Amino acid sequence: MSRTEFMQGNVACAEGALAAGCRFFGGYPITPSTEIAETMARRLPKVGGVFISMEDELGSIAAVIGAAWTGARAMTATSGPGFSLMMENIGYAAMTETPCVIVNIQRGGPSTGQPTRASQGDMLQCRFGSHGDYSTIALSPSSVQEMFDLTAKAFNLADRFRVPTFLMADEIIGHMRERMTIPDKVEIASRPPLPEARLPFEAGEDGVPGFAPFGSGRAIHVTGLTHDERGYPDTTDPEAHERLVRRLVAKVESARREIADYEVVNPDARVVFVTYGAPSRTVQQVIHDHPDKGIGHLRLRVVWPFPEFALAEFPDARVFLMPELNMGQISREVERHVGQPVVPIPKLGGDLHTPADLLRALEAYL
Amino acid sequence: MSRAEWLREDRLPHIYCSGCGNGTVINCTLAAIDEVGWRRDETVFLSGIGCSSRAPGYINTDSLHTTHGRALAFATGVKLARPDLKVVVFTGDGDLAAIGGNHFIHACRRNVDMTVVCMNNQIYGMTGGQGSPTTPPGAISTTTPYGASEPAFDLADLAIAAGANYVARWTSYHVTELTKAITTGLQTPGLAFIEVRTQCPTNYGRSNRLREVSDMIEYLRSHAMLVQKYERLIAEGKPIPEGTFTIGELVRRNRPAMGVQP
Questions:
Q1: pTM above 0.90, yes or no
Q2: End-to-end CA distance of chain B, in Å?
Q3: In this predicted structure, what is the pLDDT of residue B4?
Q4: What's the rounded mean pLDDT across residues A307-314?
Q5: What CATH number should be reported for the domain whose range is A263-362?
Q6: Which of A14, A222, B17, B205 would disulfide-bridge B210, Cβ 3.0–4.6 Å?
Q7: How are strands ordered across the β-sheet holding A271-275?
Q8: Distance, in angstroms, between B89 CA and closest chain A CA?
Q9: Cβ contact (<8 Å) for A69 and B67?
Q10: Please, are residues B150 and B230 in contact by the beta-carbon 8 Å criterion?
Q11: All residues at 6 or more sequence positions from B231 whose CB lies less than 8 Å from its CB, including other chains
Q12: In CATH, what is the architecture of A3-182?
């Protein structure tokens, strides 16, 4: 039987991870993500899992990657500055195709910025933050329910595509409390195994190699260096590098439709809000208060890989309005894909846009 | 088990310079594993970045060649998630003590059940011979052209202070003793740290009047002093020759360890 609870977003994130079979958490305390670590510290030992508070964020993501190679579902959670510290090893996870989940409860930046205030300032960092070319998957919850659901989903996507997968929430969603439902069980997709006849980094048609965890007798060499299908370093052959990097990018980018997860409201609207995360809630309020105005809303639950085809769900759109808790990080991505004007509505400082803020922005276009 | 079975022969030839001491350390480590009888499918090698850290790539087991300095943090994840796996880390002085210093002390403090073999050649070898935290004062490197001016880290002392259960130091000259020390390390619950002073004729020797491999090995042999003799000389108030470093088993104890299989 599913049960209804009144829960904090960060706790719901931890519960979603546990429901999805996460059995390893390595982390370092940082506001406003700490309740995730605290919940994991309390809960993991009771389900046979391991919690470890590492010496820093570099160590946290390193331990998570190590645990992931033993076959465990593994996760870390952090906020802005800690996320920045993880970047080198996030690139390592991308290069070595290590399935793992990284939660970022975003706070105001740059630098230590506003530890207790919300932001969506790391949306480009989670896509481009490490050096070199690669692609990742990022989900963005806008309710406590989605903190649970999307965290669980992140593990499935990480395993399916063998890619570090991000839950990019913000302080508002992390710290809000609301009613949510814990389902009886959540869907758990298994990691596709490495077939006997395949080399460790030899991909099938979908670009994703099968996974053989440590201890399974396959003697797999894993390196962050450019490697061939055997996993052996091959750092000077231009073709080997190009073949590998193109595959790492393509395995995620070519699956954009499979990964996409979004919600469409009023597809015949002429003015369309595009949101992800906490600002979605203000747009929902505005539409609720003004059902007569025919306001459209595209709410992204998956931000990366960017589902540009979702914008075509609004054939009559004259303008896309983008309230974000940053200076317009994803609005530039939307702009790349549409002919209509894209108007960023940035909000900095940690507060959510008010319905009045959005109505003011709307007035010029209605 | 034959030791050849543990080598990835399809990876040969290796990338080490002629005269490098790392092959000796790999050989001694595999001999030790042979001695304790670990199976290939239960043993995982990890490393960070640098010459030392290429070693797992030549060993035919599951292995993780990670980022610079972070091998012990990766290894902590492997060991805690699968305590039944045997974990060995190859590292170097730059990897372990500079960028990885924080992970080093905390892995020792936690006393995670793993064996860490540090190939200390007192230089950043792979990147061209820059001064490392163990480059001795006065030594010439590309970043200490007037002689290193900082004191060198004593890695074994650091491991002891931080809490490792087993700490030993030998050199690439002392192959029998080194093999024995690694064997003991593999069998000791908790973190076993074995420092190996090893030669780098290419990037250390040629700048410090030790151009021949034999010169470097002779230097290591003649400057190493068994810890028992060192302590006796100190107790007797006798002088210790300049440049002397201790070798032998420096600590063996039974602090609570993490990741030990129940």
A1: yes
A2: 27
A3: 78
A4: 98
A5: 3.40.50.920
A6: B205
A7: A262-265, A295-300, A271-275, A319-324, A342-346
A8: 13
A9: no
A10: no
A11: none
A12: 3-Layer(aba) Sandwich (3.40)
